[in-house]
Structures are given as C-alpha cells and as structure tokens.
Amino acid sequence: MTTVRPFTCDDMFRFNNVNLDPLTETLDVQYGLAFYLQYLSHWPEYFQVAEAPNGDLMGYIMGKSEGHGENWHGHVTALSVSMDYRRLGLAATLMAGLEAVSEKKWAYFVDLFVRVSNKVAVDMYTRLGYCVYRRVLEYYSGDPDEDAFDMRKALSRDTAKKSVVPLTHPVRPEDLE
C-alpha cells in the first residue's frame, strides 16, 4: 500500500529516481539542496512524498502559499512521479493533498505552471479541475521558445470563481505577481 507522508531531509538523498524524467522541471532549473530545504522549512505542510511498501519513493509534491487578499493561493512548485509508478493515480492523490492544505489555509485557488507542449500534464490537470488562466510567454529560461500555461483551480473560498476567469492576453514572466 502506498503511503503519503511529509517529506523529510533524508528523502533528499533518495528521490533522484523521481527527478530523472526530462519533463520534470527540477532538472531544467537545477534545484539545489538549499532550494528544497527552504521549502521544507517554510512550507512543510505543502511538501509530501508517496512511498511504496518496499521503501521506494514513488513521487513527491512541493508547494507553498502566497499572495494577498483575493490572490491568496496555494502554488504547486513541483509535482513529479517516477516513471516506474505512473498511471496509478499518485499525481491526483498528491494534488488533492496540496489542495486540502490550501483549503485549510483559506486560499482562494491553487495555481501551477506547466509547459504548453506537455499535453499529458495539461490534460491531467484539466481532468483534476484546473483551467488555463493565462499563457506566460517564454517562461522557461532554458528554452526561450517554450511558453507556460498558468493553470488554476478555484477553491471553496472563491464562491464567485473570480480567480479562474481566463485572461484574454498572454503575459511575460516579469509581469507575474
């Protein structure tokens, strides 16, 4: 049986198998140990790991809460599932956990950025109730021709669903709040 539990410092020495996927953004931006420790110390409730019965790390999610007023939201910084454990619903389980934490923090919505070309991920997030809020031009520094979708899902606090009304024009990374 899969166990979803809080990420620990020891997990940083065990999760390389999860990050070996070319679509995992942690490879592209080369997150360092300090980056993971920052998330673990500031937003531990948003940093979860899925562990197999044999002790393998199957996947993880890391995020944070940020913003002000009606822009207070949960943010998915990274979601990755090892190729050996895909198509088991782990990503949906990890996302549901992050959304639950965001609900407890009275966030209005959850957002994430995903490569426009990553159709599998865009389709998965759409199935999970996310919609494209806006397109961010040249979002990925390692690939200036690659845009991102800013996808959002309104939470119960946003009764009018204002946070997910799509913008009609793309933005640039420097225009993000």
What is this structure's SSE topology?
Elements: E1 3-6, H1 25-29, H2 33-42, E2 48-51, E3 57-66, E4 73-81, H3 90-104, E5 109-115, H4 119-127, E6 131-136, E7 148-154
Strand order of the largest sheet: 1-2-3-4-5-7-6
> What count of helical segments does DSSP give?
4
Mean pLDDT: 90
The percentage helix is 10-25%
From the N-terminal CA to the C-terminal CA, the straight-line distance is 40 Å
Oligomeric composition of the shown chains:
single chain
Explain briefly what this protein structure is.
This protein has helices at 25-29, 33-42, 90-104, 119-127, and strands at residues 3-6, 48-51, 57-66, 73-81, 109-115, 131-136, 148-154. By secondary structure, the chain is of the alpha+beta class.
Task: Give an account of the 3D structure.
Keywords: Acyltransferase, Transferase. Component of the N-terminal acetyltransferase B (NatB) complex which is composed of NAA20 and NAA25. The longest helix is centred in the middle third of the chain and has 15 residues, at about 90-105. Helices cover about 20% and strands about 25% of the residues. The protein is globular and about 50 Å long. The protein is α+β, with helices and mostly antiparallel strands and about 180 residues long. The chain has helices spanning about 25-30, 35-40, 90-105, 120-125; strands at about 5, 50, 55-65, 75-80, 110-115, 130-135, 150-155.
